[in-house]
Design goal:
The protein is mainly alpha-helical and 221 residues long. It contains 8 helices and no strands. It folds into 2 domains: 1-64, Homeodomain-like (Arc Repressor Mutant, subunit A, Orthogonal Bundle); 68-221, Orthogonal Bundle (Tetracycline Repressor, domain 2), CATH 1.10.357. It is 78% helix and 0% strand.
Length: 221
């Protein structure tokens, strides 16, 4: 075996080890999210997560520095997936009104399907107001969400200047109906769809008039 062969083999082993470690971290993070979304940040300890994961606390410490490191990894992992799912919707080659409808329904479905995980996101975002260790990941995720809204507006006839203000309204509406759904209101996702369609329809019609473009981008019925 040549020296180059040995170097190549060592590199392949290192890459395989890195991939295995990443898969294990993802597996532990998925178990951690299950615990966190049920109990919340403040009431969940590493021991709780270890028990639900079927591993020792020491194993968690091997992959994550501490509870903050684990939670940051969990929230980032989930939100990246959420943004990717919504981005897939925005990649659809359909007219603007249909795209807007799909985007709204995708958000609505997420309330119904992933309510507890979204609750964890809002929990961590609130914690960032008290604990600076969460500020970076929260800012990173919110930047991604604003960019997602900017992409949406670019597809349906809005302007990217509106992205931040539109995100803030969408977020407030999403959180309001999410909280209602968590309290047992099964019609909350449908209420979210109606409220957002009304807001976006009004907002985008104003934008289209300013740009002397077509009106009625989003259906409000």
């Amino acid at each position: 075996m040549t020296k180059l062969d040995k170097i190549t083999r060592l590199a392949e082993k290192a890459e395989a080890k890195s991939e295995k470690r990443a898969r294990k971290k993802d597996e532990l993070a998925d178990h951690a999210i299950t615990a966190l979304k049920q109990l919340g940040y403040a009431r969940t300890s590493l021991r709780d997560i270890a028990e639900m994961s079927g591993v020792a606390v020491g194993t968690l410490h091997y992959y994550f520095e501490d509870k903050v490191d684990l939670i940051t990894y969990c929230v980032r992992r989930y939100k990246v997936g959420f943004v990717a799912d919504m981005g897939w919707i925005l990649a659809s080659d359909v007219p603007p009104d249909q795209l807007a409808d799909r985007f709204i329904k995708g958000l609505s479905l997420s309330i119904r399907r992933d309510a507890e995980t979204h609750r964890l996101w809002y929990d961590i975002r609130t914690q960032a107001m008290f604990d600076p260790v969460f500020e970076e990941v929260v800012a990173e995720i919110e930047d991604g969400l604003v960019n997602l809204v900017a992409t949406f507006l670019g597809r349906v006839g809005g302007t990217q200047v509106q992205a931040r203000s539109t995100y803030l309204v969408l977020d407030a509406c999403f959180r309001f109906h999410l909280q209602s759904f968590l309290k047992g209101d099964k019609d909350a996702p449908a209420g979210f769809e109606r409220d957002v369609a009304e807001f976006l329809g009004r907002d985008l019609r104003c934008s289209c008039r300013d740009a002397r473009q077509c009106v009625g981008v989003v259906r409000t019925s």
